[in-house]
């Protein structure tokens, strides 16, 4: 029927576009992970910034991987998700890595703010001294919290969808005969709380860094050390502000996706999918060009690939 062909074409277009975004993002984050792992093997240690970037790259790589599998199955082979534990496992894994991605991203912004900004507040000075020791615990806390949230999503789907609900619609099997919003309201609430909290962390980090840069420009005169400090401020601000802009867009479309989550043909959901899958790759690319070591390695790799292509 024309309606079924429209659904099929819509699904094919969605999968095609998301596939391009996902594999580009996976390549970018795999590059970050590989470079940092090689440096880890050579130096036998990683600094705090590299630890955060390593966990962030791993989280985003697997987030994109599980997200693509879920989109591909739901649009092309939806009945595969009717097999017990496949839907729960995909959603639980997706939630775990997405939660890790958001919280580790917030940790990275907070780390930049504490490490680079200059304030005379005693609590801020204490954080500045202790931040390197706190980073492993913050990362561990992010992983544990994400794991708990992922298990909660797994159990919720297992109970609400796979046991209590009957699926009768052949074209869209996830549209049940009874309303399921009440079963997923706690998950929606926690998801909104998670994104709002990490979003506020990014906002405060950007505002504090901007204020620190403004004070530095007005109170410090130019000399070699001050110039280096100013460059560090500007470099971090570019990364933070770019992340802030993208995070605003991502946050807005994620909220729209939650609102229209049961209307799969809605354009807000489609745009939300595109933004959410493009965000991990684009921001990771910005992080690469904000890090001298990663940027140098990437440019060297691209030049080697270019030379080999020219020789052929």
TrEMBL record:
Cross-referenced Gene3D superfamilies, in alphabetical order?
A: Rhodopsin 7-helix transmembrane proteins (1.20.1070.10)
A matching Pfam family: TAS2R
Q: How does it sit in the membrane?
A: Multi-pass membrane protein
Q: Where are the transmembrane segments?
A: 12-41, 53-73, 93-114, 135-157, 187-211, 240-262, 268-290
Regions annotated as coiled coil: none
Q: Which domain of life is it from?
A: Eukaryota
Instruction: Please tell me where this protein is predominantly located.
Output: membrane
Compartments reported by the entry: Membrane
Molecular function, one GO term:
bitter taste receptor activity
Keywords annotated in UniProt: G-protein coupled receptor, Membrane, Receptor, Sensory transduction, Taste, Transducer, Transmembrane, Transmembrane helix
This chain belongs to the protein called Taste receptor type 2
> Whose protein is this, by species?
Prunella fulvescens (Brown accentor)
């Amino acid at each position: 029927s024309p309606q079924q062909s429209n659904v099929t074409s819509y699904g094919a277009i969605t999968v095609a576009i998301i596939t391009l975004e996902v594999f580009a993002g996976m390549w970018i984050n795999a590059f970050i992970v590989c470079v940092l792992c090689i440096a880890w093997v050579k130096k036998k240690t990683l600094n705090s910034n590299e630890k955060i970037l390593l966990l962030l790259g791993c989280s985003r790589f697997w987030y994109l991987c599980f997200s693509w599998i879920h989109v591909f199955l739901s649009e092309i082979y939806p009945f595969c998700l009717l097999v017990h534990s496949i839907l729960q496992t995909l959603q639980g894994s997706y939630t775990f890595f997405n939660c890790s991605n958001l919280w580790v991203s917030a940790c990275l912004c907070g780390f930049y703010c504490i490490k680079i900004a200059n304030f005379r507040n005693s609590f801020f000075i204490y954080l500045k001294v202790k931040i390197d020791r706190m980073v492993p615990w913050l990362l561990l806390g992010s992983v544990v919290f994400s794991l708990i949230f992922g298990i909660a999503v797994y159990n919720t789907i297992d109970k609400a969808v796979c046991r209590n609900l009957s699926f009768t619609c052949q074209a869209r099997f996830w549209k049940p005969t009874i309303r399921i919003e009440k079963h997923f309201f706690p998950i929606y609430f926690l998801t909104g709380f998670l994104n709002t909290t990490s979003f506020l962390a990014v906002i405060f980090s950007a505002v504090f860094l901007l204020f620190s840069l403004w004070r530095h420009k007005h109170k410090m005169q130019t000399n070699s050390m001050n110039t280096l400090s100013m460059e560090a401020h500007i470099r971090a601000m570019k990364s933070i502000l770019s992340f802030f802009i993208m995070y605003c867009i991502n946050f807005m479309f994620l909220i729209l996706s939650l609102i229209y989550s049961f209307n799969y043909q809605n354009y807000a959901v489609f745009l939300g999918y595109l933004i959410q899958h493009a965000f991990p790759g684009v921001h990771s690319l910005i992080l690469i060009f904000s890090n001298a070591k990663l940027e140098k390695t990437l440019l060297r790799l691209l030049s080697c690939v270019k030379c080999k292509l020219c020789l052929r």
